[in-house]
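User: what does the whole thing look like in 3D?
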Amino acid sequence: GQQLNQSPQSMFIQEGEDVSMNCTSSSIFNTWLWYKQDPGEGPVLLIALYKAGELTSNGRLTAQFGITRKDSFLNISASIPSDVGIYFCAGLNYGGSQGNLIFGKGTKLSVKP
Amino acid sequence: NAGVTQTPKFRILKIGQSMTLQCTQDMNHNYMYWYRQDPGMGLKLIYYSVGAGITDKGEVPNGYNVSRSTTEDFPLRLELAAPSQTSVYFCASSYSGGDVYGYTFGSGTRLTVV
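Assistant: Here's the predicted 3D structure for the full assembly of 227 residues, as structure tokens:
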């Protein structure tokens, strides 16, 4: 089946530093998503990308959909302690009865105050 | 507006026991999904439904059953629990397959099979 390779697996950074994580796929997706998961909660959508090459920002978060439609990155600028959590990339191909997400394994972010 | 509600939050089962994980949504979403999340892994789709009376298998359906008799409810049934089913289970819903901003997850059910 489709797989997403997400890296790095974990990051330990100092408050105020910038963060970058990325995701690659063996197949094409028509939508790419980035989620954040806090402990004991379900994933919450951060950014959705629809077009190859699209660059989208949401506050301190910036994400891009790769030209080949097989990769994406997420940047977090000036990290703060509440950025701690697990970040997942997810690909979505929808149409007809489809609608399920394919998730990467996640990047666990730890921020030292 | 409760969104997606899952019960129970935690459960310990013995091997061979059965149980039903409950999921209900109050957003009138057509699509509902069940995912499992193993430690250090992303979520994997177990079953999904595009409307009442319609269900289909996802990536990892073995050992599970679902039903969708109403728009609101999508229970997940484990008939003979096995240690490999120890996981965190997430229910989700969306208005349509492309409704990414409305795609809402519940807070999960942590299941341990011993």
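In plain terms: The longest strand of chain A covers residues 85-92. The two ends of chain A are 40 Å apart (CA to CA).
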